[in-house]
Predict the 3D structure of the following.
Amino acid sequence: MMLSRTALNLYWIGRYMERAEFTARLLEATIRLSALTRAADPSADQSIWQSALAVVGETEAFEATQQSCTPVAVNRFLALADANPNSIRSCVRGARDNARAVRNAITREAWEAINRAWMGLNMLATPRASQATMNFLETLTADTRGFEGALARMLRSEAYWFIRLGSVIERGDNTARLLDVKYFLLLPHGQQVGGPLDRDQWTTILQTVSARNAYRLLYRDMLKPWLIADLLILRKEMPRSLAACASETVTLLNDLASNSGRQGEADRLARRRLTQFDTNDIERIFQSGLHEFLRRFIAENVALDQAIAQQFRFG
Amino acid sequence: MGEPGNEARAGFEPLADWLTQTPPSELHRRQRSAETAFRNLGITFSVYGDDEAAERIIPFDIIPRIFTGGEWARLSEGLEQRVRAINAFIGDVYGSRHILNDGVVPADIVLANNQYSTVMAGFEPPHGIYAHICGIDLVRTGPDSFFVLEDNARTPSGVSYMLENREAMLRLCPELFELLPVRPVDTYPDLLRSTLFSVTPYSHDDPMGVLLTPGHFNSAFYEHSFLADNMGIELVEGSDLEVDDDIVWMRTTTGRRRVDVIYRRIDDAYLDPLMFDPTSLLGVPGLMAAYLKGNVTLVNAPGTGIADDKAIYSYMPEIVRYYSGEEPKLPNVETYRCREPDALGYVLDHLPELVVKLVDGSGGYGMLVGPTAPKKEIERFRAALKAQPHRYIAQPTLALSTVPTLVAGDVAPRHVDFRPFVLSGADGISIVPGGLTRVALRRGSLVVNSSQGGGTKDSFILADRSETTPPPLFGRSPSPPSGGEE
């Protein structure tokens, strides 16, 4: 038994912390890609930053600020802008506000990790050079790892499951958006080897979901776009893959159901989504359209989020 | 404790030695470490309208204030007597009104008081307890002279500082606890919990208690969440509760659950928009109807403000005498009621020595501090007093005690007050040996409020030496002799 509002707060701690971390990784990878590209192909640099905005769905929000799409401007918008409700700083503030409201439901360690991340961000001024940004991103990802560590030591009970549920719903959404923005880079054009820019782009994708090592361990092969797609869509061993998120969602909902003794629409949707992954392979996904597949995943994830809100009376 | 250079009072020598032996730089280091820990934990209070530093920590002073076992024994007897009288008085003025009919307290200052809650008239809460939690503010002017400065019978706050300051002291100055027999305070949440559950409206196996907070933007939110956490009860906001057929329910992930007792940390005026302030979004519509039906207990009861009003305060000695039949063990600060001609005459003759207060004023407004006031101001008050004497009380300026406090680079005397917390439940009164010591960090200042540069300290209540068990000589008991004993 838990207050519905508490469950909602916990769920959003999970979502916000995950979103903050994903945005941090995206920014890190984008700065790297931009550094590799800028000298060789200055015109490509702008599109790299535009693509970063597209991944987090902030293209229009950024345009509304009427700034030109320079690395510094996008960097600031994604990292620290208070006007952007999904900037890293806004996300950490959101996580902290939710955590403050439910201080009771989380451990001291978990609270301190979130609070530490917030205090670090709160002190930062804008704008910042790339090197300074890299330093702050490193600190932030260390703090989010600290949060995950604290989370791992929490009692396995509703509080833990709701935070995790928020994380995996957010994580699935993030990975799907990342792949969807870059999907044209992943399409198999015969067996041709990509140029240097392609390789840098593929590396960026893997880096954003911390999967560079995982790729080498699983495939023992040079970077091939369809294998990257396979890794991030279908491999359950890869925690940020869509299949892993789909599978963990089912597990967490089962945990919650075993506690409350009832299941609902969210459980049904989550199980149905998981079956699609169990009976699919990457060739079939390419044949029926990668872009369509990813769009459908994003839509289903939104429906699942709504079903969760209804089932646990978040409203 | 007196001025620096004075001999330490008996029983306090270990603290004096500790202060001599620990360099100020080390004290500062520990104090900073405590404040960092408070900030990490989020033990902050919000300052309204102050956007940048919306959350601040209250300065913490690492030198504890000490009470001997004997001092505490006398204080707690006085506190218990006073709080019993407060509850008897509240019950009486909302019930048969004996004290008013007997002319001990003038009826008009009670019944016409804006703290008098007419909806409570004729209603008796479970076990006749209204002020389950009281915070009594005490000041000291001499070795054995403690005075009550103010009674807080509505929703007194600050107890989380008593508990967190102690945790900080245990971590940062463990050696002090070897030098001094300090009585523990950490039983407070358990006592509060038993107090709450002792006053549920009816008994059943699994009563549900909640702490009702205005929300996480409230300045005391940390305390609300800390107490709910340590009592193991839900922390709820008004929107988490609903009233249906005069029963209070809590919205949960698996449906609704009935609520039996509410420790509310929101003011009377915001409790129920149907009964009080209709614009309030903090409360729960229908809550008062459920309460008056006897379906839920509110802690503290609505209407307890009648007992901590300034005009009533001046009658506390009479109130204590009336209900206990004894002399008050804890005196009030001497108070002249200007509504009485003799008192008015005295006050007018001694204005430059007195503090004059409006009975319904607070926060230092409408106040004359005679010794520091310009002549014009005194004459203005003289005219006001003559025109409307019933609106004023006057008190002598007190020579408040000081205690050693860590200030820039050194240890210096600073003024303090002390708020112990008194719990009244179905099984009687309990007082944890401790409280909140507030300290005025500015030299010479008497203002201890956190909004005006005040800080807090831990308050050590010492066990009488006879109360402490000597430490065992061996880590564990020796093995029983063969053959054993019964």
